[in-house]
Structure formats: structure tokens, C-alpha cells
Amino acid sequence: MDSEHIKEVTIEAAVITVSTTRDSVSDSSGALIRDLLTQAGIRISYYAVIPDQIPQIRGEFFTALKKANCIIFNGGTGLTHDDCTIEAIAPLLEKRMDGFGEIFRHLSLEQVGTAAILSRALAGVTCGKAIFCIPGSNGAVTLATSELIIPQIRHIVTHAMR
User: Fold this and answer.
1) 59 CB-contact burial (10 Å; exposed 0-12 / middle 13-18 / buried 19+)
2) Residue with more model confidence, 161 or 58
3) What confidence tier does 8 reach under pLDDT thresholds 50, 70, 90?
């Protein structure tokens, strides 16, 4: 990629864990995402753990939009009756990055086999900011954060900025 497509932009990240069973003490996936981002030189400007409920997820989405230009939701992306992160966030995206979910599932196939089809990983942009919804397992957050988000975040935010 031509370097003129990527501007020098400071990335501020928000990490939001969606879970009915975790809290800030037991949230290993949220901690892992924060550690990976910090190691990559990305500042964490917001963190929360919230239940699988659409109003709370959307409330955190709008709060995070004011504090970060990279928002990562982890958890609530599966097929169980209470998983609703995708339903909460997808309608709020101005543009979707379909390739994110496609590549995530492709890479997941190597790790978890055909169970990768259960992932509804999603990404897009809103208000000039990058939004990611990823599964909440430690393996999934490591894969998505290390292999997809960190390598491309400056490029994504450069294109998304208004």
C-alpha cells in the first residue's frame, strides 16, 4: 500500500466486553485486548464490561464514540439466545468492512475448524471511527487484535476520517 494512503494519526482505543458472566476482575479477554493494544503503542482511552442487552451495548457505543477512534466490542457475537452485540451495532455502522469478518473466519478455521462458521465477527466505520465486534474467547481476541486490527488500524482510521 502506498504510504500516502496512511496518515500519521493517533489511535485511541475503547475496549468493551459484552458478557452476562464477566466483570472487570474476571474479564480476561478484555485484559488481553488492552495488553495487545498497549504493546502496539495504542492508548486505551475507555474500557467497560456490560451485559448482553441492546440498550446497554448501544449506550456504550455512543459513549465510546466520544472517547476513541478505534472501538472494539468483544463477546456477544455468537448464536446463543442472549448474544446480541451484532444486532445492537450493525444498524449503527455507516459502512461495513465485510472482509474483516470473512478473513477472521478464514483464519479461525485453522484454529477451531469448521466451528468458525459460528462467528459473526463484524467491522465497519461510523463518524470517522473504526468499530470492531469480535468473539470473546481469548483465542479469538488474540487473532483479531494481533492479526487484523493492529496491522490495519491506522489505514482504516485514515480512510474513515472526515
Assistant:
1) middle
2) 58
3) confident
- The pLDDT assigned to 4 comes to 61
Instruction: Determine what percent of the chain is predicted with pLDDT higher than 90.
Output: 93
- φ/ψ bin of 45: left (φ > 0), alpha (ψ from -120 to 50), beta (otherwise): alpha
* pTM of the entire predicted model: 0.95
pLDDT tens by residue, 105-133: 999 999 999 999 999 999 999 999 999 99
Q: Which three cell numbers stand for residue 21?
A: 458472566
Can you give 4-69 as a three-state secondary structure string? HHCCCCCCEEEEEEECCCCCCCCCHHHHHHHHHHHHCCCEEEEEEEECCCHHHHHHHHHHHHCCCC
CA 152 to CA 154: how far, in whole Å?
A: 6
**Residue type present at position 52:** D
In this structure, are residues 85 and 52 in contact, taking their beta carbons and an 8 Å threshold?
yes
- Rounded to whole angstroms, the Cα distance separating 146 from 126 reads 22
Neighbours of 94 (CB within 10 A): 12
Look up residue 90 and give its DSSP letter: G
